[in-house]
User: Which sequence fits this backbone?
């Protein structure tokens, strides 16, 4: 069983580690610095990526809606590493060399 003193010492070590890992700030300055860093990260990295993805989806939807009669391939090609790479339908028969 862990004594009360060991438990407090372990908790103090964890708090010390977290405090040092966050730059040594304690209390409200620490919270404020994390809030500023999180806000900057959101506006510099997350939001532009989300906006770009949304814009690409809108462009794709407009392109699909602009030509309702365009050809769309509905089958996936079968990989064929020995021959030409991709084939549709019947495989090419191997040549029999009988001389």
Assistant:
């Amino acid at each position: 069983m862990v004594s009360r003193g060991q438990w407090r010492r372990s908790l103090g070590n964890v708090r010390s580690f977290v405090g040092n890992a966050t730059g040594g700030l304690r209390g409200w300055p620490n919270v404020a610095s994390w809030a500023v860093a999180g806000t900057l990260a959101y506006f510099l990295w997350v939001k532009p990526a989300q906006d770009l993805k949304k814009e690409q989806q809108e462009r794709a939807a407009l392109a699909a809606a602009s030509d309702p009669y365009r050809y769309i391939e509905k089958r996936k090609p079968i990989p064929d590493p020995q021959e030409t790479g991709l084939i549709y339908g019947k495989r090419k028969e191997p040549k029999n060399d009988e001389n």
About this structure: The CA atoms of residues 77 and 88 lie 6 Å apart. Strands lie at 78-80, 85-87.
